[in-house]
Amino acid sequence: MIKVGVVGGAGYTAGELLRILANHSQVELSFVQSSSNAGRPIHAVHKDLIGDVEGDFSAELDLEVDVIFICSGHGKTQEFLSSNDLPSSVKIIDLSNDFRLKAEGNDFVYGLPELNLEAIKAAKHLANPGCFATAIQLGILPLASHGVLTEDVHVNAVTGSTGAGQQPGRTTHYSLRNNNVSIYKAFNHQHLGEINQSVKQLQSDFEHDIKFLPVRGNFAKGIFASLYTTVSATEEEIVNWYKEFYKDAAFVYVLDEAPDMKQVINTNKCLIHVEKHGDTVLVTSVIDNLIKGASGQAVQNMNLMFGLDQKEGLRLKSSGF
Amino acid sequence: MIKVGVVGGAGYTAGELLRILANHSQVELSFVQSSSNAGRPIHAVHKDLIGDVEGDFSAELDLEVDVIFICSGHGKTQEFLSSNDLPSSVKIIDLSNDFRLKAEGNDFVYGLPELNLEAIKAAKHLANPGCFATAIQLGILPLASHGVLTEDVHVNAVTGSTGAGQQPGRTTHYSLRNNNVSIYKAFNHQHLGEINQSVKQLQSDFEHDIKFLPVRGNFAKGIFASLYTTVSATEEEIVNWYKEFYKDAAFVYVLDEAPDMKQVINTNKCLIHVEKHGDTVLVTSVIDNLIKGASGQAVQNMNLMFGLDQKEGLRLKSSGF
Amino acid sequence: MIKVGVVGGAGYTAGELLRILANHSQVELSFVQSSSNAGRPIHAVHKDLIGDVEGDFSAELDLEVDVIFICSGHGKTQEFLSSNDLPSSVKIIDLSNDFRLKAEGNDFVYGLPELNLEAIKAAKHLANPGCFATAIQLGILPLASHGVLTEDVHVNAVTGSTGAGQQPGRTTHYSLRNNNVSIYKAFNHQHLGEINQSVKQLQSDFEHDIKFLPVRGNFAKGIFASLYTTVSATEEEIVNWYKEFYKDAAFVYVLDEAPDMKQVINTNKCLIHVEKHGDTVLVTSVIDNLIKGASGQAVQNMNLMFGLDQKEGLRLKSSGF
Amino acid sequence: MIKVGVVGGAGYTAGELLRILANHSQVELSFVQSSSNAGRPIHAVHKDLIGDVEGDFSAELDLEVDVIFICSGHGKTQEFLSSNDLPSSVKIIDLSNDFRLKAEGNDFVYGLPELNLEAIKAAKHLANPGCFATAIQLGILPLASHGVLTEDVHVNAVTGSTGAGQQPGRTTHYSLRNNNVSIYKAFNHQHLGEINQSVKQLQSDFEHDIKFLPVRGNFAKGIFASLYTTVSATEEEIVNWYKEFYKDAAFVYVLDEAPDMKQVINTNKCLIHVEKHGDTVLVTSVIDNLIKGASGQAVQNMNLMFGLDQKEGLRLKSSGF
């Protein structure tokens, strides 16, 4: 059994992680740390976990673990690692964006299994990708792998309210968000860094823009991303590139028809559809932002890092509706 | 022209009031006070009012007005009146619950036009009813007027998120409220006081319970109330009582079939349906919580207090969908 | 492995059943019959099942199975059994309401495990309870078991749109249903038969009414039921009755605070809360209408009928949000 | 008073038209034709119109009218005009797409007031623009008027379910549409014809693509359109172009901050925001699809055709929430 600790246990990604780990056959939960909730039952915060996860949030870490998931929010992992001296035997899976970009002294492997499978298997420290970044990369990387990204890529992606975290605020107030649509961080979202990094890993000469409009949708979970660019290959060729690229992927499916977002909700799947219109290739990519876009992918990475089947604990029943 | 001032201008009921007054042919807006937003344009807060309402929120009152609407929230009207010496010529319409209950020294008329029409016309100070209280009273008062409430009345009413005000919080967080239902203040809602007061005004021997379950719905606007009790009269008789009771009402309609809540959204209407099942009479009553349940009714009361047609400014286009 | 056949495989309950069975360790899917979709891939209809369930809908039955789930809709099971001569070795789990009421010649066991555990274990033919019926019975049966139902029981229950099936129609049109509430079949819902039957099984002298208002909610999945009646025992006593009644139940939890409906979505759980207000006991009961209210409970019953752990295949990750 | 007839009176656009006309001071409703509902009260179909619109649907036309609105659906106006010999004195406002494109013998003026004001004032036959077409043109025409569209224009626009009409179907089924997103008619929507026609009216050398992805949103009303292209002028210059272009427009506002879609719901407004990111100009444009995108614009056109103030009958209270 893998002994697991969770840091920052009261937020949305930690909740989703605990929901998944509760039914993971190879995991034993050692501690769930939360400074704001220490001493309270875990299901006092993640209320749906009643009957699934016993125990209380702890203030302290238990360092006798095999792996720690850090769910503390962006900027806080660096802080956490500075203030805590983790034994070198403890693997780290970080859900924040602190270590996603390659840099001098950063030994975290970027945890997109469809891109970095072997490196992930060998990783000790892993930076789990962002939610938008996952949907967009899975939509675009097969093109990069063929070196055909020679124009700007146009991306529009709609996300659910859980992407904004659990802190209540203006844009997540039900009265405003319900039946509403709005854009934020136009062309400037922080996930563009990791997306460009991965694209260049496969196509080093890529020098165009990924023009990305992030959109707030009026639903709680999910990301619907559409991407298009100019590519001269035929639809059939491109579809085959995608099928080839994902032939061993555990959770990515290339569909024959455009997906509804809700086909993936509550699963670790990514569904992709490719169609050609004139010179333009249009790719649709849908994920659950908290699962394949966060905690599900983190467990997929854990499975790889510990030599388990990628799907262990991730054969999740879709919401359906 | 009636010179109007608004106190507590940044909240939901004030916004809805301004939306209505913007197209009221007999109103001139003198000031919109907001301590938290003084100096900002009104449409910086109520953003949909762009092009409809010019001017800024003010810190101060302008006492050269004919009427002041107080939209400051429960408990704050008493405070406001203590700290401000209003000229006796200024009428007051208070949307809070501070003066709804009769008490020694309370000269506020309870502003349910279907109950207190003549008193409202003569009122100088008016206490505007609560949202749930409006839907429930309009559903039950015709029975009280016939003195047939001799058993408990069972009420379930679902309200939209705007009923909870604009301050973000746990129960109005989109991620939680979306696709959710929950109950609060079971059998204990603060509107029961005014409801019982009105029922006893018509049927002084009423001594049973109004058992009221308030429910949080996953929509922004509207109240859907169902009420039932035991009454021996026939359905036809009861329907006639309702039609008679509301024959001069400007905004209440007794329908032949059960309503959808959304038939009234964005209007000042109340739709009522009555059906008999055995000895049980079931009444459905639907309103827009912010209009007939708050600001629309406040304008209806203003119209009455100033001798205008009740419908002035309140011929509102329904949302439809 | 249990060989399973599904009849009426294209509807919502069949889809949900297939989502659950796909991850059930003891099940082998033999056939999924659908006359309207014979020959099409199963995931062409239940699109989220891509990667989870292979194979096509069949026109024919394969009688070499251990159990058949009948998901054909109300009234059609009788028809099906008349036209098909099933071997006596094949167990039947019927999701329709055709055999829920005891009658001369009806050998179907009513499949509410919290009520009929031993009978279910021994059953060959099983009638799976209705969705509203499940939520309401689980809310009320502990009172019946103590014989304290001596007044009418007042029930209001809100259901999601999937309860109306997949055939598009007026009341499931998005434009109408969104942000709407309405009542249907007031005091007259077809599930009252089975509810009364179970109540009388535990309290044979029950002769009052269960006054049930079914409500259409604007969400896709879930049932939120509130129930109240007059009981003289204290809150503490009653809570203890509930905890005792459900002490061995695999999926029912008695909570310390009132539930949100969404705590159970995508699970087979039923969450129950009990509180006392004066002489009135208020019970809240929430389930996922398609899981504990249909296909999940059907699998729970299958597990019991085949001697498996009740939770097998039903440790489902909650949607969370 | 303008005598008005409505053809095809039972659909969504007719309902919205009747909601608006009910409060139009210069209009007298002569007939509302509907073959499928002839003889039924108008508020039996458009149920929220109770108390606002009396009278029944008629099978026949009354040709003693000043103007007929045709709301029959695409392709049916041509049919209608062939089978009915309208007096030449009757003006026609057609909400279908039958006459939007210039063609030999087509004397319908394209009714976008911000583009064709004078022609509309003089028009006898008017083709009312499509909903997407309105939002997109209002977002792009100021650029065309300066001749700066020298690259492809990238458009993503999300629409509510009312855009799909009242006939229930798969994509408007609540269970599917709720919490969902999907794309349809990618790069190929029928409104592209009228959009290109208008762009070329202002910039005759435009020869690039308007790459338009139409998206199904999970709300009933509204369109949220984002558009971007490459323009070298500064943000300040471009914003000034927009303000100048719309300086006399009755319903278009150029905002200082990006809009929420719901700011315009239930109004005839179009809100526009312009921002520059590097060489890319991003325009956001939001409307209510049934009002500025259909029936409200039709009334605005009627006002112009009859010499009235454009805003007559269109000072609509916003939904707010």
Q: What is the topology, as strand order, of the major beta sheet of chain A?
A: 8-9-7-10-13-12-11
Number of strands of chain A: 13
Mean pLDDT of chain A: 97
Instruction: Provide the domain count of chain A.
Output: 2
Task: Decide which structural class fits the backbone of chain A.
Answer: alpha/beta
Computed Rg of chain A:
19 Å
Identify the biggest protein-protein contact and residues per side. A-C, 41 and 42 residues
Separate helix tally of chain A: 9
Helix content of chain A: 25-40%
Annotated CATH architecture of the largest domain in chain A: 2-Layer Sandwich
Structural shape of chain A: globular
* N- to C-terminal distance of chain A: 34 Å
Oligomer: homotetramer
Largest sheet of chain A: 7 strands, mixed
Uncertain ranges of chain A: none
Q: What order do the helices and strands come in, and which of them pair?
A:
4 copies of one chain form a homotetramer.
Chain A: E1 2-7, H1 12-21, E2 27-33, H2 42-45, E3 67-70, H3 76-83, E4 91-94, E5 109-110, H4 113-122, E6 125-127, H5 131-145, E7 153-159, H6 174-177, E8 182-183, H7 192-202, E9 210-216, E10 223-230, H8 235-245, E11 252-255, E12 270-277, E13 280-287, H9 291-305
Parallel strand pairs in A: 1-2, 1-3, 3-4, 4-6, 5-6, 7-9, 11-12
Antiparallel strand pairs in A: 7-10, 8-9, 10-13, 12-13
Helix pairs in contact in A: 1-9, 4-9, 5-7
Task: Tell me what you see in this structure.
The structure is a homotetramer of 321-residue chains. Chain A folds into 2 domains: 2-129 and 292-305, Rossmann fold (3-Layer(aba) Sandwich); 131-289, Dihydrodipicolinate Reductase, domain 2 (2-Layer Sandwich). Chain A is built from 9 helices and 13 strands. Chain A has helices at 12-21, 42-45, 76-83, 113-122, 131-145, 174-177, 192-202, 235-245, 291-305; strands at 2-7, 27-33, 67-70, 91-94, 109-110, 125-127, 153-159, 182-183, 210-216, 223-230, 252-255, 270-277, 280-287. In chain A, helix 3 (76-83) links the parallel strand 3 (67-70) and strand 4 (91-94). In chain A, helix 1 (12-21) crosses helix 9, helix 4 runs parallel beside helix 9 (291-305) and helix 5 (131-145) runs parallel beside helix 7 (192-202). The two termini of chain A are 34 Å apart. The model of chain A has no long low-confidence stretch (mean pLDDT 97). At the A-B interface, helix 6 of A face helix 6 of B.
